[in-house]
Amino acid sequence: MLDSVDLSQSLDRETYVRDVALYQLQLQELSQQVRAQNRPALVVFEGPDSISADDLILRITENLDPHTCIVHPIDDPDGIDLAHHHLYRFWRRLPPRGKIGIFDGSWYREMLVSRVSGHLSDEGWARALREINSFERQVADFGTIVVKFWLHASLDERLQQDEGEEGVLYQVWEFPSAVWNSPERREAYQDAVNEMLFKTSTLSGSWTIVESDDGWWAEVKTLSTLVETLSWALNYQPRTLRINPVEAEQEAPASKKASGKKKKKGKK
Amino acid sequence: MLEKVDLTKKLSRADYEARLPGLQRRLRALQGACADHKVTALVVFEGWDGSGTNGAIHALTNGLDPRRFRLHTTQAAQGAEEDYPWLRRFWLNTPAYGEMAIFDRSWYRRVLIERVEGLASEMAWRKAYRDINEFEQSLADDGVTIVKFWFHLSQGKQKRRAKKRRQDSAEGGLAHPDGWKHHKKYNEYLVAVEEMLERTDSKWGRWTLVPATSRWYARNLVLETVAARLEARLGDNRPTPEGADDSIADDIRKAMEAAESIL
To answer: Is B83–A40 a contact, with Cβ atoms under 8 angstroms apart?
Structure first.
């Protein structure tokens, strides 16, 4: 699955600025629809540690009404979460009706790490996949809109991103470079990810692979996928979808005038 | 399935009271061992109105260390609970490793009262069997020992108990206010109960059918069952028994096996 991903795609500055502005406007509208229709939405970012989802999440949330979304950074479990089933902490953090829950890291993390490092038997791996599918099915059956992003980048790109950190050559997941440099390990990783993506792309929630070599491309792809999925699931076309940004700019002053008039009327 | 339950099973109050202290000591010791060895237990009480689940829960918890068990009473979902998938509120009450969670009514509400009284749509309760099985399987695979009790009563006995409760104002205050209403639908509930037992009896979550005609017999059976399940799970780590009356314990174990083998 990952082999066939075209990682060479990129965006120029002009397109990037235009698209981000457009999709953020649409996302604002759609998030209000999530509230109005009282539907929960679940957005998952997953991928190797070396690819950061920070910017992708920031592009989503930066212009959203903070009432409409909750972001959960997922690190190692602690406290009460450690004393329970591994899905307990995600049941706990599910978004309620009318909110978008964004997960930076997710229920896939632990199982992939233990699989690649060889701590998870075939049986445990099958069980983890089954439990995750059951969890996502129940969440989707409730009416939750589930969007899952898998961040993928070429090894060269990951190397570049990591070079800033001293002494770290490859830091994919949590493996020391020695482990990562062994071809078998890398193969195990590829196999595990491919199988996981294949077996957990279900009716309840399918994966979107985000080509992350080019940061701008990744941001726009995330935004556009989210807009499309929400728009389809909510059966709502954002108004701005039909207007191109240049027209939108021209329209903006007009709407300001209109609201100004209303205010004046209100005063009288 | 339920027709195979022997409702004539009896235990005298004197016999029960003679055994109770020993049983409770045994459970207390087991609870300590469970905490040490991270053995987790989830005990579900379901049964007819007036079948004596409350008394049995009390008998079970009476000797336990209150820091290591939680009792959860299940009522209709309300407020924020309705903003999430239906099993979430039960997930939040799952026991921490080494502890025991006791559910006085549970997720089975959905396929019993909510089904019969029309509080859940047909699609919702039909889907619930699968949700429940997967939920229990996830917990069991994670090492949780699941013990489920169904307290069975005949229609006649339930009627007599309901009548008595209505007369007795002290008990009436405690009794389920809809008890009489539910009793009138005994046969509708019977269908729901049978289907529930059939569809949710799994190798990781076996139902134990409790003949509840004699409350002493029922309580004794509950305590014995929980103790036996915990001992089985603890294996070599189980605490050494102290001065138990073996002949009676054997009889009880046989009775318990008879009750379990019906399923």
So the answer is: yes
Token code pair at residue A215: 């940061």
The minimal CB distance from B134 to the residues A85, A134, A139 is found for A134
Q: Does B134 touch chain A (CB under 8 A)?
A: yes
What ipTM score was computed for the predicted complex, to two decimals? 0.84
Residues in chain A: 268
Q: Who's near B131: CB < 8 A, 6+ residues apart?
A: A138, B86, B87
Q: Any CB–CB contact under 8 A between B89 and chain A? A: no
Nearest by Cα to B105 from B46, B149, B146: B46
Q: State which fold the A2-237 domain adopts.
A: Rossmann fold (3.40.50)
Where do the structural domains in chain A lie, given as residue ranges?
2-237
Give the integer Cα–Cα distance in Å for B9 and B215.
10
Angle at B2 between CA B110 and CA B211, to 5 degrees: 95
Count the neighbouring beta carbons within 10 Å of the beta carbon of residue B146.
Answer: 18
Tell me which residue of A114, A94, A99 sits closest to A31, measured CA to CA.
A99
In Å, what is the CA distance from B200 to each residue of A26, B4, B103, B129, B132?
A: 45, 18, 16, 7, 7
Contact (CB<8Å) B85/A139? yes
The answer to whether A85 contacts chain B (CB < 8 Å) is yes
pTM of the shown model: 0.85
Residues of A in contact with B91 (CB under 8 A): 87-88, 91-92
* B144 to chain A, closest Cα gap in Å: 9
Question: Distance between CA atoms of B45 and B106, rounded to whole angstroms?
Answer: 7
Q: Which domains does chain B have, with CATH numbers?
A: 2-155+186-261 (3.40.50.300)
pLDDT in tens, A222-239: 999 999 999 999 999 988
Q: Residue A257 — pLDDT band, cuts 50, 70, 90?
A: very low
> In angstroms, rounded to a whole number, what is the distance separating the alpha carbons of residues B111 and B181?
18
Contact list, B96 vs chain A (CB under 8 Å): 80, 83-84
Q: Are A188 and A85 in contact (CB under 8 A)?
A: no
Q: What is the mean pLDDT of residues B160-174?
A: 67
